[in-house]
Amino acid sequence: MIRDKITRRNFVVSLMKTGVILPIIGKGGMERRLGQGRTKLPLIMTSKTNPAVKEQITATAWEVLQKGGTPMDAAEKATNVSEIDPRDPTVGYGGDPNEEGFLQLDASAMDGSDHNNAGAVAALENIKTPCSVARLVMERTDHLMLVGKGALQFAKMHGFKEENLLTEEARRHWVEWKENLSNRDYYISPRKKHKLEEGGTINVLVLDEKGDIAGVTSTVGHHFKIVGRVGDSPIIGAGLYVDNDVGAAGATGHGAEAIKVCASFLAVEKMREGYSPQSACRYVCQRVIDRHGGKPLFGLKIVALTKNGDYGCCSIRGKIHKETGKVIGLGFSVHDANGHRTEAGEAILPPMTEEERKSIPWR
Ligand code: ASP
To answer: Residue 354 needs a FRET pair 20 to 30 A away by CA distance; which of 16, 108, 120, 191 works?
Structure first.
């Protein structure tokens, strides 16, 4: 067998090509790539970029830390902001319902400082803040996940109030969806289309000055999903993973695919091997793309940070910049000593074409 001669130079170059290490430019300066950063601790990172809540989310986490709260307190309170905001169709109260018109929420929590303990709820109904229930499953039971009726009973036992989570806006959106499903039923669709706030499942990753990490993921899941469907968000290792020795990662997008590759766990394991968060996120996205012959008909975004404050984000598919017409990565938000900012992540593929969209069997 002929082996390549491995010199120090071609070894380093090959690591750079795979993204395991980044090229150094200038004197001691690390090349900045999209969605790639390093910051002074503490650091808060969220998948959220929608104008209405993104700053409020990170500012809430920041304030909790400043007041002496733990990363877990900060991640929970920040996620609650999105969960109780009715304008966001993808998280908590005001989210789009399932196909029968009621909401079933999924959430998870992981606390690095508590031996990477974890808790989750799935298909939880009538509770506005599912991530707080997930945290209690972690802290007040020896189980990891409660679902459906049991999760609701547990929430009520801890004093959570049952509430109707379906807002008028979400109800109208659901009716519109039903009316447009088929031209072989008796519903007639309205002429005017609904306009919704930009949204997306929320991941919040918090790293404090001591290097402790916590994470939370919360979602309504897919809009108009089949009753009982559970996505990646409450699955530890898929929608969220924290390892206090290494870092944390969260996934948003097509949950089934995040589960199939254990997306968040995989990203953290790659960082453990020495990948930067950016290359770890890219690795996971590429892995998913490869599973689908290079043409995935869905989106997936991974955010990740390391214990020392490096962070990164990559999505399978990007979006088109309104002014330049160029493909850009999906965004994420961070908050550190310099305040809040939204950054663009990296995208591997352009957005789906109209043709690709039409070819999706369930659309
Ligand atoms: N990952 C979520 C799920 O599959 C949905 C999303 O992020 O949009 O439930």
So the answer is: 191
Phi, psi angles (nearest 5°) of residue 316 = -65, -45
Using DSSP's 3-state secondary structure scheme, residue 242 falls into: strand
Task: Collect the ranges in the chain with pLDDT lower than 50.
Answer: 1-33, 196-197
Verify whether ligand 1 is closer than 6 Å to residue 222 (CB atom): yes
**pLDDT tens-digit map of 26-73:** 222 233 345 566 667 899 999 998 776 778 999 999 999 999 999 999
Residue 167 appears among annotated catalytic residues: no
Query: What CATH code is carried by the domain that includes residue 290?
Result: 3.60.20.30
Whether 117 maps to a domain, the answer reads yes
Domain that holds residue 217: 8-358
Give me the helix-helix angle, 148-157 and 130-140, nearest 10°: 80
What backbone phi and psi angles, to 5 degrees, belong to 212? Answer: -85, 145
pLDDT value, residue 190? 67
- Examine residue 1 and state whether it is found in any structural domain, yes or no: no
Catalytic residue, chosen from 60, 201, 217, 306, is 201
Diameter of the chain measured on Cα atoms: 71
Please report where in the chains the tokens 């709820």 appear, as a residue.
Answer: 121
Q: Which ligand 1 atom sits closest to the C-alpha of 201?
A: 7
Does pTM top 0.85 for this prediction? yes
d(CA 60, CA 44): 10
Q: What is the pLDDT of residue 159?
A: 98
User: Can you tell me which residue has the tokens 């803040």?
Assistant: 129
What pLDDT shows up at residue 199?
A: 55
Number of domains in the chain: 1
Whether residue 3 is contained in a domain is answered as no
Ligand 1 atom with the shortest distance to the CA of 220: 9
Q: How many CB atoms lie within 10 A of CB 345?
A: 27
Is there a domain that residue 314 lies in? Answer: yes
Nearest CA to ligand 1 atom 9: 221
Long-range contacts of 168-177 (CB under 8 A, 24+ apart): 169/86, 169/89, 169/94, 169/194, 169/196, 170/89, 170/94, 170/95, 170/96, 170/97, 170/103, 171/97, 171/101, 173/89, 173/96, 173/223, 174/96, 174/97, 174/101, 174/224, 177/223, 177/224
pLDDT value of residue 88: 85
Sequence letter at residue 193: K
Give the closest residue to 307 by CA, choosing from 247, 219, 349, 230.
Answer: 247
